[in-house]
Write a structure and sequence with these properties.
By secondary structure, the chain is mainly α. It folds into three domains: about 325 residues, no CATH class; about 140 residues, no CATH class; about 120 residues, no CATH class. The relative contact order is 0.07. The C terminus is likely disordered.
Length: about 650
């Protein structure tokens, strides 16, 4: 079957969907009118009298039956129209409703990069735009779907289980299966079906609500009728549910076989999609989702829930046999044993990692050196460190930091990039925004002292701040705009650059709004669990090219806070937004909780056993944003 034949089949299925929907609505209307007729007969019949003949009963209640039919059709139609309208924004809306997280194009997560590469490869090979890509983070089952009206508004979503449990070839087979639905018109039918069936399924919800909220007394002669109506609505709702599943099953099963075959034809690798189906068969989570899949079950790669009757998907073993004719059921037993063995090895490796993390957590620089007690009251040796650091600053730079005239330029000087090309671009930004004199002053500092060392940048800011804050508010606004432009001059923002810019903004804002500053709140760590995980994840990934050491550092921080060490390292694609909101929330922690948090952040940053100057400044900048001033270290004391 070629592309055009698929399109013709899709159009025929659309007509079939319309006919089945009309049939379902007529059956529901007939059931509701029957219920109304029965309730009317019970409500008007006097004790001891014979019931009216059916024809007379219908004739007597014809307005009620007509009104019931019109109301039922209107409710179903309006509900379906509402759902269809809500889905007009395309497939991304469906993915977001199921808890999907958008995979950004610059994601640093290896598995998400692999997913994006696979989707882009198949899209480019198909000649269609690359769809939006989502991951259902909360779903451990192996599943996926494509949603949308056209390839231009399509979205492809996979579960976290599919990302973690499938090989690249298997993931490619699953994505090729979903692209078959995109290319062959199935996706458009699927999203229409989702909207159309909503009106039918709505009656089950209404019936339950009537039962919950109905109030009647035992003496009420109409009490039996009310109970009957409530139960009747529920029953009719489940008639709608039956019809909805029947329609989905009648349209979906053959399409799944065709999509499987298309995936094999596309990838030339039956082991890809076959392997994915086999893993669904042997994993305990299978393809099941935690989210309610009643509305979307027909568009999923595998069954969204365990279903004995009217399943939207063919049996797994039949799907496997069709793509892999040599398949034998005993293969599943061998695959299950292999997966179990791999899980045992992973647990053993995780145990070793946990022990390493515990050692790192117990050797935290704060606990070992008693630095938590020194926050706000540094010991004498920290004074010596500060004096040595101040003496290490070139005299011209130190004098400029104390000068009202030169303080902004010292600030810009701390943000200069080591790369000459980017640094020249930054100097041009300073000239454009602050004037040629400001650029000349920054160049003079650079020529006199070279680039500042990592451990000098934050202290220079702290030294320049008293002079800087004396400048007028409009000038400060220009300075902050320039700082933002400098940090983004290379097209990306480093975590330390981001934190340093936020520290500058915070200090300057607080100096002009002292009455509005709160340095602590009443929240506990449990109130900010997600924010803590986000900040630790960003710090763990700083400077790391691979996920493994970042995950190890993150898990060490979890242990330091008595959190589950198996907590998944969160995605940090949009880390700037995450850090902005997370640090604001953590600033409202109780002081005692901040102490524990700072200790955990130190464990994350110094997981490798040392606190390098750049790592220390990263930690100090992060803590400054939650109003925790960390004392200085010397190199000898930065070892854990």
């Amino acid at each position: 079957m070629n592309f055009f034949e698929h399109q013709d089949r899709a159009r025929r299925q659309s007509r079939r969907l319309t006919l089945l929907f009309i049939l379902a609505v007529l059956v529901i209307v007939a059931a509701i009118d029957g219920l109304l007729l029965l309730a009317a007969g019970l409500g008007t019949r006097e004790p001891g009298t014979e019931p009216l003949p059916f024809a007379q009963l219908v004739q007597a209640n014809l307005p009620l039956l007509t009104g019931g039919a019109i109301t039922t059709i209107a409710v179903i139609g309006l509900a379906s129209l509402f759902k269809i309208t809500s889905l007009r924004s395309g497939g991304g809306q469906v993915a977001r409703q199921l808890g999907g997280t958008l995979v950004e194009s610059d994601s640093r997560d290896a598995k998400r990069r692999r997913l994006r590469n696979v989707v882009e490869e198949i899209a480019l090979a198909s000649g269609v735009p690359v769809p939006e890509i989502y991951v259902l983070e909360q779903e451990s089952g192996i599943n996926a779907f494509a949603a949308g009206y056209t390839p231009s508004d399509a979205a492809v979503a996979v579960t976290r289980g599919a990302l973690e449990k499938l090989s690249r070839n298997e993931l490619q087979g699953v994505i090729a299966h979903e692209f078959s639905h995109i290319l062959n018109g199935d996706m458009r039918i699927n999203i229409r079906l989702m909207g159309v069936l909503f009106g039918i399924l709505l009656l089950a919800i209404v019936g339950r609500r009537v039962m919950i909220h109905a109030r009647f007394g035992r003496s009420d002669k109409n009490g039996a009728a009310v109970v009957l109506v409530a139960f009747g609505l529920m029953a009719i709702g489940y008639i709608g549910l039956f019809f909805g599943r029947w329609i989905k099953a009648s349209l979906s099963r053959q399409r799944e076989y065709l999509a499987d075959a298309s995936a094999v034809q596309f990838t030339r690798d039956p082991q890809g999609i076959g392997g994915a189906l086999k893993k669904i068969a042997v994993y305990s989570e299978a393809s099941y989702l935690n989210a309610d899949t009643e509305e979307v079950s027909h568009m999923l790669f595998g069954n969204g829930r365990r279903m004995a009757l009217l399943s939207t998907h063919p049996p797994l073993k039949e799907r496997i046999s069709r793509v892999d004719p040599g398949f034998r059921p005993e293969e599943l037993e061998r695959l299950a044993a292999s997966i179990l063995s791999e899980q045992v090895r992973e647990r053993q490796a995780s145990e070793r990692q946990r022990e390493q993390a515990k050692k790192a957590a117990s050797g935290s620089v704060f606990d070992a050196g008693g630095l938590v007690e020194q926050i706000g009251s540094p010991a004498w040796d920290r004074m010596l460190v500060a004096a040595a650091l101040a003496a290490s600053l070139p005299r011209d730079v130190r004098r400029a930091a104390h000068s009202t005239e030169w303080a902004p330029e010292v600030l810009f000087y701390t943000l200069l990039d080591p790369g000459e090309a980017i640094r020249e671009q930054q100097l041009l930004i300073i000239a454009q925004r602050m004037g040629a004199d400001s650029e000349a002053q920054v160049r003079a500092l650079l020529q006199a002292a070279g680039l500042p060392a990592a451990e000098q940048r934050l202290p220079l800011l702290e030294m320049a701040f008293p002079a800087l804050k004396r400048r007028p508010p409009d000038f400060i606004t220009r300075v902050l705009d320039t700082v933002k432009a400098l940090t983004g001059a290379d097209g990306r923002v480093d975590v330390f650059e981001f934190l340093l810019a936020r520290v500058i903004s915070q200090h300057l804002w607080e100096s002009h709004n002292p009455d509005r500053v709160r340095t602590a709140g009443s929240n506990s760590l449990s109130d900010c669990r997600n924010e803590i995980l986000q900040v630790m994840a960003v710090l763990a990934r700083h400077g790391q090219q691979d996920e493994a050491p970042a995950a190890a550092a993150f898990h060490a921080g979890c242990i330091a806070l008595d959190l589950d060490p198996e907590t998944t390292l969160p995605a940090t694609d949009d880390w700037i937004t995450l850090m902005d909101s997370a640090l604001a929330a953590l600033d409202r922690l109780k002081p005692s909780e901040k102490a524990r948090l700072v200790n955990a952040l130190a464990v994350v940053v110094a997981y490798d056993g040392r606190m390098e100057p750049a790592e220390l400044e990263l930690l100090r900048a992060a803590c400054a944003l939650i109003h925790v001033p960390l004392p200085l270290f010397n190199q000898g004391q930065s070892e854990l």
